[in-house]
Amino acid sequence: MAVAMVSCGSICGMCTSLKVIEKQPISSSVFFNGSLVLNPVQKLYITPKRLALSGSTIIPKASAATAVEGGSSQETTAVPTPKVIIDLDSDPDATVVEVTFGDRLGALLDTMNALKNLGLNVVKANVCLDSSGKHNTFVITKASTGRKVDDPELLEAIRLTIINNMMEYHPESSSRFAMGEAFGAFQPYQKIDVDIATHIHVYDDGPERSLLCVETADRPGLIVDLVKIITDININVESGEFDTEGLLAKAKFHVSYKGKALIKPLKQVLANSLQYFLRRPTTEDASF
After folding, report:
1. Short-list 197, 120, 127, CA closest to 154
2. Ranges for the ACT domain (predicted)?
3. d(CA 73, CA 48)
């Protein structure tokens, strides 16, 4: 179901050399959709073990006093895979965020406070425990509108806030995050080859939309980048889910073109565009 979207602020990407990289913001009249109207670019400044956005979007520092409340105080040899799931499909009125890190997470009051400092309301929070660990779920809306979060830059800020808090108060998790290489306490336990890790598929999902599935190596700013590539070829993103699973990012987007499912040639154009962007080597201007 199409969701109305407000104009985005600006979010910036980052690189492991801790240099500033400017990202173009996204704006459209439909959720993740339409031609882009670029606003003045603001920059994201990265310092070790911190993520901070300048301008209207800020990733706040969490409170250390409540960081591991109720969590496990014992370290185990096997570090579980951390997961951050941002779901825009399951609730029509709110955005659902799920955080899992084995049985090591407590009530995550620090994360709830950090989300509130992003201008969000935590409408509901609950915890469930199963064989895969403790699942902390937050149902959030924008404080200013009471509606679900559908701004890709704010969604990325939410994701980075949660990951930042987890690495800050559970330092061992940085060995399982791709972003741990830049500002984590521990280096990632393995390197991901982006060419091997990247998989893109487009499936039919009824007469009015298609389902785009993307799996690739994770990095900051990925939600914004994916949406920009899709909307640059005039494909609408109606809703979706973005999962961070350790070193990998997995996205599922419901997409359409002029209210219809994508035809085969357009599916190929979309897949080729994403593959080119995600697999191309990064080159600094200073190398020329």
Report:
1. 120
2. 96-176
3. 25
